[in-house]
Automatic annotation (TrEMBL):
Gene3D superfamilies: P-loop containing nucleotide triphosphate hydrolases. The keyword Transferase applies. Transmembrane segments: none annotated. This is HPr kinase/phosphorylase. Residues 1-74 form the HPr kinase/phosphorylase C-terminal domain. Its EC number is 2.7.11.-, 2.7.4.-. Keywords: Kinase, Transferase. Coiled coil: none annotated. InterPro entries: Hpr_kin/Pase_C, P-loop_NTPase. GO terms for molecular function: ATP binding; phosphorelay sensor kinase activity. One of its GO terms (biological process) is regulation of carbohydrate metabolic process.
Amino acid sequence: MLILGPPGAGKSDLLLRLIGRGWSLVADDQVVLDGLAVAPDPALAGMIEVRGLGIFEGVAVAREARLALVVELVPPGAVARLPEPACWAPAGVPRVALAAFEASACDKVAWALDAALGRAAQRAGAFAA
């Protein structure tokens, strides 16, 4: 999963909460994308910036992953109740818009990834057929 958003949108905050739930980090700030293969930029591998604390190094990272979902962080008022399916054009994977600072954001990301991977089905919304 790739998290996109402007500065201050909550990318690192959401990432820290996902890591706390057992998710693996590939990279913070920049990734190398080759088709659907995602890897850390060698110059930044193992580093993460935590707003208010600084840049940490030696962080355990997954050396590669397969991109299956893009999460675009938007203000809470910009999240559609029943969004239409959308695709992130550069890689042709599903894209969803979420608000990072909602208490349920990590759970929504998990549901979205399950839907993107075909492990959850929808009747209506971002992954409905």
